[in-house]
Design brief:
Chains A, B: This is UDP-arabinopyranose mutase. Chains A, B: Its main location: Golgi. 2 copies of one chain form a homodimer. With 364 residues, chain A is of the alpha/beta class. Helix content of chain A is 35%, strand content 15%. Chain A is built from 11 helices and 9 strands.
Chain lengths: 364, 364
């Protein structure tokens, strides 16, 4: 039978879960007033703020939060020439925060995301739900029709093979959005008034072999298990494309999780996404991506990682090679992106020498 | 953008949907008093009742329902020696009803399933939801994080390839159960008091390449698209196994849907499952299946159907061959089952000559 994860059920646990093992990464260009609303849930945790755009601007952080803040000058100073792999003027810069974190878990959230309410009207502690998702196993190898079998009141249904009921380690927890849904520019334009008001009370594992669109707005992951695959690519200033940073990370990450038998969940928790970005600006950023993804998706659907790749880093470098070879034909951008993927791994290993050593040791 | 299916939203549509194109198939051993509760929803439709067990017993059907009833004598008379493929003393006999139906759609329900209520307290018209599911496309090739993109108020999210937004034809709609969950005997024994009270307001496509445990309690399908794959196998009297009838059909059906690019949905609608079957009796029926499924699942996960199989019948016969060859090694039962699968297709084509002709014509 499935064991349920015993996690306090109150919205504000008396001892915050994983308090010293989780960083909250926030990319921003403005004062972080949105944190006021999250104070009861986030204050016990350490924040890593990645300031995008003009580094001379001062970002105000509400009092009482424990944080470190990096602007572009900091990124350049810390990474030197390898800073070229971190996007500028795009929220893709958030992945720098993943790299400098020293914790096992990361939760990342956009600064236009507020606390949502569940159908009973109670504030949703999004972080607590992500932690529950990450601490309980996933079921990537077979589909359970009653959703998460590890949740209280649920289990595996008749016909679910017993040998698969231990599940897999969960690497990623992808949360959803009430109010403004995460639509692309064409959909935004056609449905400017559409709001998401449906609260679907479920967490599910994205099955092995299935790709999905991972949104970076409300996302948590296990850095030790999958961190080096969470590179948000080259977007924004000087790049021909934007708004595909999280998608790119999601596709790379999923192929690697499938290879390493790790699980990826989507569903709860919801956040309240407060405002739609400008669809005209978005269209400009997205339009090449809209064409390119028609080739990118089949590429990732067919990508296979050699058996001998037994660390995330090795898997990622193998993917980078395949990106250069196969997607490089579509546009020179992908050659540049493939090189940046390699630089990212070099920078990751430089800043995380112990993991790199462990990983390399494990690999030998 | 996704088009939404325009279907009347009232629980009791003034003109019942697909009134002349859908049969309700019910396997039973008792009087069908449960139909009283379903009267507002089922009365406009034609019922096919498959009487299991003693054919001399009279099954009472509440007044006002339009039905045909088949007992074992009828099955033997209609199918002759081919009747051997229809199970006896097991609800697997329901698939005889699929075969004799002359309609495009079939909904099948167990006689211990009652009308459930949605969270607002309204009676759920399960049949109407199944019809909505069948009439709108599926999305087997890529995962949409906001669930069914064709539902009102929803759409495809950012990063969903535009070329895949037409979706695939939906062949199967698998509904769920409130109250008594569909657990196997071991889980029933360990959790005798577990009840499902979680209403998950979602319909999702089971992704291509992913198997799931299909339950026959609350199930609808498009007979024209997938009917011949809906064989519930050899269970019950004289067989070494029970309670794997729907599972077997689900695994065969899913492999064929994946091959033919058809969609399979699960989620809404819920029915109220009134009583748990006896776990001790269930264990006796299931225990060989519990072992065997550890081999059956990998078998279906790795089964490939030759490209030239372009009808459900051909796909099914190819699977039967593979079952005999590969699962026959586990137990002689699978050789018998593989033969029954062939008999089933012969019987299907005999009773459905026009489809068979069309299919054969199409195949040439």
């Amino acid at each position: 039978m499935a064991g349920t994860v015993t996690v306090p059920s109150a919205s504000v646990p008396s001892t915050p879960l994983l308090k010293d093992e989780l960083d909250i990464v926030i990319p921003t260009i403005r004062n972080l007033d949105f944190l006021e609303m999250w104070r009861p849930f986030f204050q016990p945790y350490h924040l890593i703020i990645v300031q995008d755009g003009d580094p001379t601007k001062t970002i105000r952080v509400p009092e009482g939060f424990d944080y470190e803040l990096y602007n572009r000058n900091d990124i350049n100073r810390i990474l030197g020439p390898k800073a070229s792999c971190i996007s500028f003027k795009d929220s893709a810069c958030r992945c720098f925060g993943y790299m400098v974190s020293k914790k096992k878990y990361v939760f990342t959230i956009d600064d236009d995301c507020f606390v949502a309410k569940d159908p009973s009207g109670k504030d949703i502690n999004a972080l607590e739900q992500h932690i529950k998702n990450l601490l309980s196993p996933s079921t990537p190898f077979f589909f359970n029709t009653l959703y998460d079998p590890y949740r209280e009141g649920a289990d595996f249904v008749r016909g679910y093979p017993f040998s698969l009921r231990e599940g897999a380690k969960t690497a990623v927890s992808h949360g959803l959005w009430l109010n403004i849904p995460d639509y692309d520019a064409p959909t935004q334009m056609v449905k400017p008034r559409e709001r998401n008001s449906r609260y679907v009370d479920a967490v599910m594992t994205v099955p092995k072999g299935t790709l999905f669109p991972m949104c970076g707005m409300n996302l948590a992951f296990d850095r030790d298990l999958i961190g080096p695959a969470m590179y948000f690519g080259l977007m924004g200033d000087g790049q021909p494309i934007g708004r595909y940073d999280d998608m790119w990370a999601g596709w790379c990450m999923k192929v690697i999780c499938d290879h390493l038998s790790l699980g990826v969940k989507t569903g709860l928790p919801y956040i309240w996404h407060s405002k739609a970005s400008n669809p005209f600006v978005n269209l400009k950023k997205e339009y090449k991506g809209i064409f390119w993804q028609e080739d990118i998706i089949p590429f990732f659907q067919n990508a296979t990682i050699p058996k001998e790749c037994d660390t995330v880093q090795k898997c990622y470098l193998s993917l980078a090679e395949q990106v250069k070879e196969k997607l490089g034909k579509i546009d020179p951008y992908f050659v540049k992106l493939a090189d940046a993927m390699v630089t990212w791994i070099e920078a990751w290993d430089e800043l995380n020498p112990s993991t790199a050593a462990v990983e390399n040791g494990k690999a030998k």
